C-alpha cells in the first residue's frame, strides 16, 4: 500500500529525471507525472544533449560540481551498458576552441569529463582563427530516445503519467497530493508566477555527415557541431527574450556558414531537419522547497526549473537534489515514517 502521494509537473528531461529518482528511491510513494507536452514536443527534444556547462553566478560551485558529476556518472554508466543505444546515450570526444583566451582555461567540470587536457599547438593548426582549445570526452544524450527510455523506467518503478495542463497549483492540492514537484521549465513563468524565468531561443539543424567523428564547440557555444547516433547537430543561436518557435531561414543560413568555417566538409552535408527550442533561462536555476498556501492547506512545493542551456547536463544531479528536498518534506509530515 503506497502511503504518500507525490506529483511531478513536467515531461522534459528535468521532470522525467526527477520523477524517476523519486519513484525508484521512495517505493512507498505513489508518483504521478503530469505534463501538457511530451516527447517529441518538449524543449528537451531540441537539445543537442551534450554535457558541458557554464556556472550559475550565485550557486556554490561545489554544488554545481556535484550536479555535473552526478549527471555525467549516471549517463556514463548508461553509455557503457547494453542499454546505451535504446537510451540514446553515447560518449563524445572533441574540442572546445577559443579565438581569445577564456577567463577559465580549465572549466569547473574538467575533472568529471574524461581525459580533459589543453590542446597542443599542433592540434590547433586545424583551427587557424583560434588561439586556445580544450580536448576531452563527454557524454551526448539523444534526448528523444532518452525521454522515451526514462518514461519506460518511470512506469517500471510504478509511476503514472498523465497528459494535462496544470493551470494552477491549487488544482493539484485539491486532488490531495502530499507533495508537489515543479519541473515545468519555462512554464514556471505562469504556473508559479516567476518573472525571473525568460526564454533564450535556440535553433539547430540536423545534418547527414557520417564522416564527422568529433565535436567542435566554438568559444561560449555560439557555434557547435555535435556528431550523434543518428545525425550531426549543428547550431546554434542564443536569442534572449525571443519567443518565436518558427524556424528562421536566415538563422539556418548563418549557422551553416559559421559551422562550415569550422568544418568545411559540412557544406556537402544534407540537411535532414531544423528545430527551435526556448531554453528555460533564469539567472540561477531554482532548486528549493517552499510551503505554499493552496486553499486552506499549506502544501510543500519542491521547485526544480530554470536550467537554461544546461538542463541535460545537470538533469540527474538536480533531480537527486530535488529528491532530497521531497524526503525532507515527507519527514516533516510523517516524522516516524521510514524515509
Ligand atoms: C537549441 C538548444 C540546444 C540545447 N543544447 C543543450 C545541450 O547540449 N546540453 C544541455 O544540457 N542543454 C541543452 N539545451 C537546454 C535544454 O534543452 C534545457 O535546459 C532542458 O530541455 C530543460 O528541460 P526541462 O525539463 O526543464 O524543460 P522542458 O523540456 O521545456 O519541459 C518542460 C515540461 O513542463 C511541462 N509544463 C510546463 N508548464 C506546464 C503546465 N502548466 N502544465 C503541465 N505541464 C507543463 C511541459 O509540457 C514540458 O513537458 C539546449 C536547448 C536548446 C533550445
Ligand atoms: O552550448 C552548447 O554547446 C549546447 C547547448 O547547451 C545549448 O545550445 O544550449
TrEMBL record:
It comes from the Eukaryota. SUPFAM superfamilies: FAD-linked reductases, C-terminal domain, Nucleotide-binding domain. Its cofactor is FAD. Transmembrane segments: none annotated. Its main location: other. One of its GO terms (cellular component) is peroxisomal matrix. It is found in: Peroxisome matrix. D-dopa binds at residues 224, 279, 309. FAD binds at residues 36-37, 43-44, 166, 308-313. Its EC number is 1.4.3.1. Residues 6-320 form the FAD dependent oxidoreductase domain. GO terms for molecular function: D-aspartate oxidase activity; FAD binding. It is an enzyme of class 1 (oxidoreductase). It catalyses: D-glutamate + O2 + H2O = 2-oxoglutarate + H2O2 + NH4(+); D-aspartate + O2 + H2O = oxaloacetate + H2O2 + NH4(+). Keywords: FAD, Flavoprotein, Oxidoreductase, Peroxisome. InterPro entries: D-amino_acid_oxidase_CS, DAO, FAD-dep_OxRdtase. GO terms for biological process: D-amino acid catabolic process; L-aspartate catabolic process. Selectively catalyzes the oxidative deamination of acidic amino acids. Suppresses the level of D-aspartate in the brain, an amino acid that can act as an agonist for glutamate receptors. Protects the organism from the toxicity of D-amino acids. May also function in the intestine. PANTHER family: D-AMINO ACID OXIDASE (PTHR11530), D-ASPARTATE OXIDASE (PTHR11530:SF11). Belongs to the DAMOX/DASOX family. This is D-aspartate oxidase. It comes from Salvelinus namaycush (Lake trout).
Amino acid at each position: 500500500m503506497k502511503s504518500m502521494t507525490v506529483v511531478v509537473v513536467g515531461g522534459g528531461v528535468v521532470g522525467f529525471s526527477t520523477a524517476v529518482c523519486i519513484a525508484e528511491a521512495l517505493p512507498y510513494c505513489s508518483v504521478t507525472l503530469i505534463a501538457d507536452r511530451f516527447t517529441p514536443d518538449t524543449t528537451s527534444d531540441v537539445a543537442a544533449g551534450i554535457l558541458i556547462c557554464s556556472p550559475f553566478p550565485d550557486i556554490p560551485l561545489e554544488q554545481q560540481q556535484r550536479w555535473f558529476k552526478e549527471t555525467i556518472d549516471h549517463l556514463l554508466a548508461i553509455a557503457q551498458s547494453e542499454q546505451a543505444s535504446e537510451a540514446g546515450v553515447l560518449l563524445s570526444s572533441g574540442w572546445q576552441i577559443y579565438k581569445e583566451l577564456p577567463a577559465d582555461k580549465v572549466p569547473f567540470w574538467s575533472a568529471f569529463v574524461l581525459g580533459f587536457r589543453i590542446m597542443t599547438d599542433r592540434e590547433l593548426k586545424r583551427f587557424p582563427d583560434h588561439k586556445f582549445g580544450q580536448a576531452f570526452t563527454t557524454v551526448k544524450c539523444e534526448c528523444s530516445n532518452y525521454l522515451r527510455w526514462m518514461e519506460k523506467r518511470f512506469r517500471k518503478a510504478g509511476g503514472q503519467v498523465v497528459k494535462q495542463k496544470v493551470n494552477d497549483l491549487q488544482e493539484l492540492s485539491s486532488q490531495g497530493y502530499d507533495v508537489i514537484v515543479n519541473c515545468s521549465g519555462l512554464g514556471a513563468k505562469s504556473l508559479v508566477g516567476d518573472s525571473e524565468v525568460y526564454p533564450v531561443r535556440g535553433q539547430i539543424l540536423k545534418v547527414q555527415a557520417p564522416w564527422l567523428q568529433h565535436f567542435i564547440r566554438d568559444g561560449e557555444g555560439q557555434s557547435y557541431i555535435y556528431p550523434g547516433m543518428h545525425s550531426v547537430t549543428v547550431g546554434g543561436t542564443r536569442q534572449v527574450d525571443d519567443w518565436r518557435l518558427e524556424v528562421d531561414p536566415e538563422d539556418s543560413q548563418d549557422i551553416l556558414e559559421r559551422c562550415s568555417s569550422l568544418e568545411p566538409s559540412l557544406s556537402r552535408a544534407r540537411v535532414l531537419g531544423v528545430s527551435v527550442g526556448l531554453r528555460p533561462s533564469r539567472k540561477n536555476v531554482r532548486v528549493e522547497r517552499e510551503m505554499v498556501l493552496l486553499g486552506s492547506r499549506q502544501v510543500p512545493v519542491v521547485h526544480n526549473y530554470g536550467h537554461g542551456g544546461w538542463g541535460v547536463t545537470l538533469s540527474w544531479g538536480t533531480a537527486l537534489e530535488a529528491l532530497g528536498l521531497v524526503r525532507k518534506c515527507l519527514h516533516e509530515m510523517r516524522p516516524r515514517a521510514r524515509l
